[in-house]
Specification:
- By secondary structure, the chain is mostly helical.
- The protein contains five helices and no strands.
- It comes from Neoaquamicrobium microcysteis.
Length: about 170
């Protein structure tokens, strides 16, 4: 279990980085939207790049946070069915769900990488970046989902009486 605790601490750091990046991206999103409004209504010259940049930022905010939601258990879940099961039944039901989430994460990563390779030479209109950047958060989130699911499964196997999430404190500097 010491190795699992060490891995969890590293993943705590990864979650902290995702939170920090998402906060910066959200602040940038607000600034871009403000610049769009200022340009349109005050300067009468709307910047063309802000809408595409905002759409890109939404992907970079939402998809990594969805992966974190699987680790932190703040994703959408129906709790009535597991509450009707015995502790052993709950354990196996959770393992079944985690394996399904792992396959979903793998499919996200695989599709994201495939889409990146297909669109690397296409440009995003108005900002000129490669279209592959649109699919990068899908691939990253898929990989992070698989890693977070593997951690939860490892904790469930290492200590079946404990919740599958390590319940460790958030990483702090």
């Amino acid at each position: 279990m010491p190795i699992l605790r060490a891995v969890s601490r590293v993943l705590d750091l990864a979650v902290w980085i995702i939170y920090a990046f998402s906060a910066l991206a959200m602040a940038s999103l607000v600034i871009f939207a403000g610049w769009q409004v200022w340009g349109r209504y005050v300067l009468n010259s709307s910047p063309t790049w802000t809408e595409q940049a905002a759409l890109l930022l939404i992907l970079y905010i939402s998809l990594p946070l969805a992966a974190v939601g699987i680790r932190q258990k703040f994703h959408l879940a129906v709790e009535i069915f597991p509450d009707m099961l015995s502790p052993r039944g709950r354990y196996w039901q959770e393992m079944f769900v985690l394996v399904g989430l792992g396959f979903f994460g793998w499919a996200m990563a695989d599709a994201g990488i495939e889409l990146m390779t297909r669109t690397v030479r296409q440009a995003i209109p108005l900002i000129g970046w490669s279209r592959a950047y649109t699919y990068l958060p899908l691939a990253i989130s898929g990989v992070m989902t698989v890693i977070f699911v593997a951690e939860r499964i490892a904790w469930a196997i290492a200590d079946p009486k404990r919740a599958s999430h390590p319940q460790s404190a958030p990483f702090s500097l």
